Automatic annotation (TrEMBL):
This is Tail fiber protein, putative. Residues 31-173 form the Baseplate structural protein Gp10 C-terminal domain. InterPro entries: Gp10_C (IPR053827).
Length: 174
């Protein structure tokens, strides 16, 4: 019973069943043509070009670009830095004002109210703090201040790169 499950092949049987090397190569090429038609992208962590790995096609390497999924292909854009030149045109309108909080007064020494004491020989141009008192400036009432205008884009360029992992990438052109 053991021998019923064992299949024995002769050398001729194996030779007859062996696929032709040309047929295998043709089948491999057809599979790869289906998987990687013209316009396909090939990515790898290995720098070996896809025509060497796959054995078919003409490929152009994609360098220094992020892949961006869109409704059309082969368009490029963007930059590595953000600066005033690559921000959209814009300005900021500023309209600031105080609201009736401007009234105020200050205290000062009132030299004009100085009274010279009787019996003293005091010259008119000498000022003393004797009999002098604090007085207040006169406020001009509540008032407002207003500042208006537009800002403009200023500043320095900054590097901007989201977290990434580098890969080798090509797209098939023929």
């Amino acid at each position: 019973m053991k021998d019923e499950h064992n299949i024995k092949f002769t050398a001729q049987d194996l030779y007859d069943k062996k696929a032709d090397k040309t047929e295998l190569q043709t089948l491999k090429t057809e599979i790869l043509q289906t998987l990687y038609p013209i316009g396909s992208i090939y990515t790898s962590m290995n720098s070996t070009r896809p025509e060497v790995v796959l054995g078919l096609g003409t490929w152009t390497q994609i360098v220094d670009r992020f892949l961006y999924c869109a409704n059309s292909s082969k368009e490029t854009g963007g930059s590595k830095t953000i600066s005033g030149e690559n921000l959209p045109a814009h300005s900021h309108y500023v309209d600031l004002s105080t609201s009736q909080a401007g009234w105020h007064k200050h205290k000062f020494w009132d030299w004009h109210a100085l009274k010279k004491g009787k019996g003293y020989d005091v010259k008119d141009d000498v000022q003393f703090a004797i009999n002098c008192y604090w007085s207040d400036t006169q406020g001009d009432g509540n008032h407002t201040h207003r500042v208006t205008g537009y800002t403009q884009t200023t500043g320095q360029s900054k590097d901007y790169m989201p977290p990434y992992m580098t890969v080798y990438a090509w797209y098939r052109i023929a």
